[in-house]
Amino acid sequence: MNNFEGFIKTVHVNGNLSIVDIDVTSDILMKAIVIDTPETASYLKSNAKVSILFKETEVIIGLGDQSGISLQNKIPAIITHLEIGNLLCKLDLKSDAGIFTAIISAAAAVALDLKVEDEVIAMIKLNEVMLRSL
């Protein structure tokens, strides 16, 4: 499980759902959708420190400008290690948010011609991000 830390910037509420904006660094803003509100989860408030969790298999890797895609959690990163197996590829990634891991198909890694030191954009759907109060 990948884990970053950040501070809640804003909480947008509709019914019993909230979209939470989290400042991870000055340049990286992540979003999570949670089935909670500030009334039901006391940690959902501005400036609260949270842990941001997401699975390695939920990371999508892209090359170049990703402005034409609906995914909002975009983390610029550099590949520091690459293990391509028969079916899967494990990528170790270094970003301003921290070091994390992605697991994608081996076919995708080959098609993208991924190599160590390549610059990539790691993307995570906001419904795949979990928050934990710190």
UniProtKB/TrEMBL annotation:
Q: Which Pfam families match?
A: TOBE
Q: Which SUPFAM superfamilies match?
A: MOP-like
Keywords, sorted A to Z:
Molybdenum
Task: Read off the PROSITE patterns from this record.
Answer: MOP
- Could you tell me which residue ranges the Mop domain spans? 68-133
Q: Which InterPro entries match?
A: Mo/tungstate-bd_C_term_dom, Mop_domain, Transp-assoc_OB_typ1
Q: Does the keyword DNA damage apply?
A: no
GO biological process terms, alphabetically, are: molybdate ion transport
Kindly provide the name given to this protein in its UniProt entry. Answer: Molybdopterin-binding protein
